[in-house]
Amino acid sequence: MTASNVDQAPGRKSGAGGTALTLLAWLIGITMFFPILWVVLTALKTEQTAFSMTPTFIFSPTLESFRSALAQGSGYWHYALNSVITALGSTLVGLALAIPAAYAMAFYPSRRTDFTLVWMVSTKFIPAVGVLIPVFLVYRSLGLLDTRLGLTMLFTAMNLPIMVWMVYSYFRDIPVDIVEAASIDGASTTQTMFRVILPLALPGLASTGLLALILAWNESFWSLTMTDYHAATLAVYTASFKSGEGLFWARLSAASVLTIAPIVVLGWFAQRQMVRGLTFGAVK
Amino acid sequence: MATDEQGIAQARHEASSDDTPPRGRGTRVRRQRVRAAWLFLAPMLIVLTAVAGWPLVRTFWFSLTDASLSSLDGAQFIGFDNYLVFDDGWYGILADPLWWQSVWNTLYFTLVSVSLEAVLGVIVALVLNAHFRGRTLVRAAMLIPWAIPTVVSAKIWAWMLNDQFGIINHLLLTIGLIDAPLSWTADASLSMWAVIMVDVWKATPFVALLVLAALQMLPNDCYEAAKVDGIHPAKVFFRVTLPLITPALLVAVIFRALDALRVFDVIYVLTSNAASTMTMSIYARQQLVEFQDVGYGSAASTLLFMIIALVTVIYLYLGRRQLGGEQ
């Protein structure tokens, strides 16, 4: 069904047009994937091979770089744990804040709803650099610098507008009659939300959570500026591999692979949810 | 699709807004609902105000002072002197050629990269929407660039673009497109394109996904009809497909444009503070952190915020008018 949207003659799919299309699709896929492939290959090289003047695809792979990137002193597991805690924490807190807010806007809209939505999205105009100093000062006086709690709060605030927006768009797909019916049957607002609406919107909530998880995992500006070591995430870990004039590229590559591996694996398994999350949230 | 949605939204609004109480229900219930609604909204509003709104107000206040990182408390109110002041010649950000270059660089970067991402995103979405062998695999591979941290992807590209050991130069030399290695990130005439290339690589999947979702929701009968009438596929695309996916494309473009106007990390990793790729965010950070000039840097941040807001308003206005005209 979908094929005919592009290939206007579905009958030719298996013919020359189909082959050309497959080739084009694979070409695009390989081009997009090549940098990732290259960093994985570099990670499997020795520093000497990585620095050959003619970059090579054929070499005997070694796990040496991974070993040194994972070695005791590198602290990979420390950073990874911070990444997991801050990403998961901000996602859960974000959902806890976004669900009621989106619920109120979707099912009890008022004249202020549009304004609230626009104001919320307008916080996305704020460049992170622009609020760096005030946030830094507040964090310093509250003792939140370089803490997981502080970083989690920043991630939450960073993702909140898009999370509310997405949950709101899922809620809006649910007929308002259901809420009316539940309240006529005597359900309280909280009961309606937890017993009726949340189960209906569960796939959407999962997609929203997944997207927030990925965005938090990938955040680098705040993690680099607000943390030093205690709360530093994998983004800081990767950035700490100073490339300088290109020393230790193989090790940097190994570190990069270790940073992106968890999220890529998660994304792979949850691909369908992720596509749903991204698209439903923004398109509808 | 858009009309439908508006219809639903309107119906919903009529069904439950403050002005038109649902039939047979008293004001007590309504008041209770309004209270519940506010209660539900409050946590989100408080968090956003505390973490985004308040710092923004403080930044604006700093921009009116001569604060520096070492003496924040002793800052003096100096009005708009950070923006523009006449003191035997014009001083302030608005008189700084580097600021104007950053503004120009940012707008140029945004326009070129977002345009490329929109065009390529549509093409990729059209391809991914067709059936071919290994579609799931290709789609998953496509997602990866978007799903990895910018710091990491910028480092990956810095390595690939390395003038001596980079694979890009090697490939270009091998196929004979260039005669000598290019220093992508150091050469002022190339670095902007290097940065744009990395951004396009990273963000095209995002646009493609949004467009793909819109494509999959298109009604099939238009295509059947067009096919029966023997209309050229290109014409079908421009007359049928493109108008139908425009709303999704507009959303993708605004999301991307907001990111592009604030672009920081990809440029910072690839070219640091080089003037040829300095954007407004990089300029503001340099003033704030490296020169420790909080007042001046805050003024730059405030201007950046206002420029983004202005661009967004213009874009939304134009977008709404265009969509309105089609309905």
UniProtKB/TrEMBL annotation, chain A:
PROSITE patterns: ABC_TM1
Transmembrane annotation, as ranges: 21-44, 84-105, 117-139, 151-171, 192-217, 248-270
Coiled-coil residue windows: none
Cellular localisation: Cell membrane
GO CC terms: plasma membrane
ABC transmembrane type-1 domain sequence ranges: 80-270
UniProt cross-references to InterPro entries, sorted A to Z: BP-dep_ABC_trans_perm, MetI-like, MetI-like_sf
Membrane topology category: Multi-pass membrane protein
GO biological process, alphabetically ordered: transmembrane transport
Main location: membrane
Keyword annotations of the record: Cell membrane, Membrane, Transmembrane, Transmembrane helix, Transport
Family: Belongs to the binding-protein-dependent transport system permease family. MalFG subfamily.
Protein name as it appears in the record: Sorbitol/mannitol transport system permease protein
Taxonomic source organism: Kushneria indalinina DSM 14324
Lineage: Bacteria, Pseudomonadati, Pseudomonadota, Gammaproteobacteria, Oceanospirillales
UniProtKB/TrEMBL annotation, chain B:
Keywords from the named record: Cell membrane, Membrane, Transmembrane, Transmembrane helix, Transport
Region (Disordered): 1-29
Topological category with respect to the lipid bilayer: Multi-pass membrane protein
Entry's localization field: Cell membrane
GO CC, any one term: plasma membrane
Biased composition (Basic and acidic residues): 11-22
InterPro entries given in the database record: MetI-like, MetI-like_sf
Pfam families tied to this protein: BPD_transp_1 (PF00528)
Transmembrane segments: 36-57, 107-128, 140-161, 193-216, 236-255, 296-318
GO biological process: transmembrane transport
Ranges of residues in domain ABC transmembrane type-1: 103-315
Family recorded in the similarity comment: Belongs to the binding-protein-dependent transport system permease family.
Protein name (record): Carbohydrate ABC transporter membrane protein 1 (CUT1 family)
Organism for this UniProt entry: Kushneria indalinina DSM 14324
